[in-house]
Amino acid sequence: MPIGRYVLAGLLAAAAVSGFVLLIRPLFFSLAEPLDDTNYRVAAASVADDGPMLVEILLNEPHGYPGEMRRDEQAGLIVIVAPVGPAFSVVNAWSPTNDCAITIGADRLLDCEGDAWTFDGIPIDPADPRLQGFPARVSNGAVMVDFTRPIPVATS
Question: What is the pTM (predicted TM-score) of this model?
Fold first, then answer.
């Protein structure tokens, strides 16, 4: 008879733990930020701190950005993530002046014709336009970007 009590107690304990987990689990997911184009993790902050890097991403939907590539139902985009002071800059790796990809140079970003920008997308030649930038922040050790709201470029 004592074995039956232990089995019953074990089953009740397992049911109580399962019920507790089922009640608490939704709370964890309700506190987590949704991961979509408004809240996109592009890199670990510790990795991005090492210097500018090219990152190819898949967006959840196309936005019509320069240099955007179709990947079946999604859109691909290459961005440059760079540490700028205490924050991070995320810019589109597509040249607005020559319609070509941008590469990372020793101290600047360069396109196929030699036009140059700082790592945060400011043109070296004031006659050139800025690179398309996106709002970035650090959350839980990751660089998070909102790809639905490009940073407006001031016109003079």
Answer: 0.75
